[in-house]
Design a protein that fits this description.
The chain is an alpha+beta fold and 172 residues long. The chain is 31% helix and 31% strand.
C-alpha cells in the first residue's frame, strides 16, 4: 500500500511538472515563433482559388509587428491578388530546416495600394521585381487568427497520438 501511494505521488508530481512546462512553453510560443520566422526569412503564402485548389508561393515578407501582422508585396495583376480578393482567408508557412521548426499562421489578407504605405513598406532587394512602385507594386497585409508551432530545438512538439500542435489564438 505504501509503495502504491509513493507511486501515485510520483505520477502526480510528474504530471504537475509536465503541465507547468506546457504553461511555460505557451507563454514563450510567440517569442519562439518570431525566432523561427526570422531564421526562415521567407514563407509560403497559401491562397485558395475559386475551385477550392490551394496555391503556395514563396514570399519575402517583413518581420511580424507586435500583433503578428505581416506585410508582403506582389504584382497587382498576380493570381494571388485575385484569389485574396475573392477569399481573404490565407495561410503563411515558415520552415526552419536547420532547427527542425515551423510556424503556420492562419488569418485574413487585405490588399493595400496606398502610395504612402507602399513607400514605408519597401525593401531595396525588390527593385528588380517592381520597376514602377506606383503601378507594379501591390501590398498584402496579413492579420493572424491562429498560429501553430513546432520546434525540436525548444522541445515544442505535437501530441504523440494526434500530432496536434501547440497553438496561439489572436484577438481581433
Amino acid at each position: 500500500m505504501k509503495q502504491l501511494s509513493i507511486l501515485l505521488l510520483l505520477l502526480i508530481s510528474i504530471s504537475c511538472i509536465d503541465k507547468k512546462e506546457k504553461v511555460i512553453e505557451k507563454t514563450n510560443l510567440k517569442s519562439i515563433a518570431r525566432e523561427i520566422i526570422t531564421s526562415s526569412k521567407n514563407c509560403a503564402l497559401i491562397t485558395v482559388d475559386s475551385l477550392g485548389v490551394a496555391h503556395a508561393r514563396a514570399m519575402d515578407p517583413f518581420s511580424p509587428d507586435e500583433k503578428f501582422n505581416i506585410w508582403m508585396a506582389t504584382k497587382p495583376n498576380s493570381n494571388k491578388v485575385w484569389q485574396i480578393a475573392k477569399n481573404p482567408n490565407v495561410t503563411l508557412y515558415y520552415f526552419d530546416k536547420e532547427n527542425a521548426s515551423y510556424v503556420t499562421l492562419q488569418g485574413k489578407a487585405s490588399l493595400i495600394n496606398s502610395n504612402t504605405i507602399k513607400e514605408k513598406m519597401w525593401k531595396k532587394e525588390w527593385e528588380n521585381f517592381y520597376k514602377n512602385r506606383t503601378t507594379d507594386y501591390q501590398l498584402i497585409l496579413f492579420a493572424p487568427k491562429k498560429m501553430n508551432i513546432i520546434s525540436e530545438k525548444y522541445n515544442i512538439l505535437g501530441d504523440s497520438i494526434t500530432w496536434k500542435t501547440p497553438e496561439v489564438l489572436f484577438k481581433k
